[in-house]
Write a structure and sequence with these properties.
The chain is mainly alpha-helical. It has two domains: 160 residues, Outer membrane efflux proteins (OEP) (Up-down Bundle); 151 residues, Outer membrane efflux proteins (OEP) (Up-down Bundle), CATH 1.20.1600. The protein is built from nine helices and two strands; from the N terminus they run αααααβααααβ. It has a two-stranded antiparallel ribbon. The longest helix has 65 residues. The radius of gyration is 30 Å and the shape is elongated.
């Protein structure tokens, strides 16, 4: 008969489940600005339904109720994007902090081994006191970097936890996804759904309707002229909003392009570090370099890989900033 093992013990032996990037983004709906925007949309839809059902409702009242509903929907979409961008940034910052901590650990291990070698060489008379002291200082610097990396990791974890309620201690993070990047013309087209543009366009529509309700047979000329001026001003405001949104979107799109170039460079450096490591391993097997030199090459390869991850996350953050600027949801491919 097999021995009985408590279920809790079995579960504790399993690896901690990873918090996934899509699951973290899904919690954007729980953020207070999104909750408030959803409540505004619910109220706007209820008001619109009441107005539409009211046979005595005036044309202007129906228009205003519809506009409020449309604007509330656009604002809810933007708040969801903002909340997702905030969560994404906190998520990738924790990933970067965890990677930096692992690098600091490896750096400390290498510094400790280097000091042991230096102590041995000092005893044998191969180096002087100054060289030994330099190795001791490098070890102390490595310890400081590890402490700083640990503090940064804790802060990043607390930040993400405050947004999504995770990860728990011991819970891993799955890799973040990669953004689908639109062309500049597609970015411009998306601006039509931006709440600022919609609000300005609604101002034009409202002014047009107000002017259409006036007739010289019953409205004073001064009132008609004032309505015409209001329409002209609304159209001017709409054009200004469009121009401002295009300039902002173009700047964000260019920032994305710059981050993409940075990522390409980081990948090139990572490939070079991988080739250098292969060479170092061959030389080590041939007895041409020391174990410390090989460990240094391995650390440089890890540093280059972390630099690629950092560049990927910088690109993702820039893409989310573009999504906020256009009020258009970002499509993110799965990391796998």
């Amino acid at each position: 008969m097999k021995p009985w093992i408590p279920l809790a013990l079995l579960l504790s032996a399993l690896p901690a489940l990873a918090l996934g990037y899509p699951e973290a983004l899904a919690r954007a709906d729980d953020r207070p600005p999104v909750v408030a925007a959803r409540a505004e949309l619910d109220d706007a839809e209820a008001q619109w339904a009441r107005t539409e059902a009211d046979p005595a409702a005036l044309r202007l009242e129906r228009l205003q109720a519809r506009q409020r509903r449309e604007l509330a929907a656009a604002q809810l979409r933007l708040e969801r994007i903002r909340a997702s961008a905030e969560i994404s940034l906190a998520y990738t910052q924790l990933l970067d902090a965890q990677a930096a901590y692992r690098l600091a650990e490896r750096g400390l291990e290498l510094a400790a081994r280097t000091l042991r070698v230096a102590q041995l060489r000092y005893v044998k008379g191969g180096i002087g006191r100054q060289e030994l002291r330099a190795s001791e200082l490098r070890l102390e610097e490595a310890r400081n970097r590890l402490r700083q990396a640990d503090d940064a990791r804790a802060l990043a974890r607390a930040r993400l936890f405050s947004l999504v309620g995770g990860p728990e201690p011991g819970e891993a993070l799955a890799p973040a996804g990669s953004p689908v990047l639109p062309g500049l013309e597609a970015v411009y087209l998306r601006l039509d759904a931006h709440p600022d543009r919609l609000r300005a366009a609604q101002g034009v529509e409202l002014a047009q309707t107000a002017l259409a309700l006036l007739d010289p047979s019953y409205a004073p000329r001064a009132r008609i002229e004032a309505a015409q001026l209001q329409l002209t001003q609304a159209r001017t405001a709409l054009e200004e909003v469009r121009r401002g949104l295009r300039l902002q979107a173009k700047a964000r799109w260019q920032a994305v392009a710059e981050r993409q170039r940075d990522l390409d460079l980081a990948r090139g450096e990572s490939d070079k570090a991988a080739r250098d490591l292969d060479v170092a391993r061959e030389r080590y097997r041939a007895g041409l370099i020391s174990e410390l030199a090989l460990l240094q090459a391995e650390l440089e390869r890890e540093q280059a890989a972390v630099a690629v991850q950092n560049a990927e996350h910088a690109l993702l953050a820039a893409a989310w900033e573009l999504a906020v600027a256009t009020a258009w949801p970002l499509e993110v491919r799965d990391a796998h």
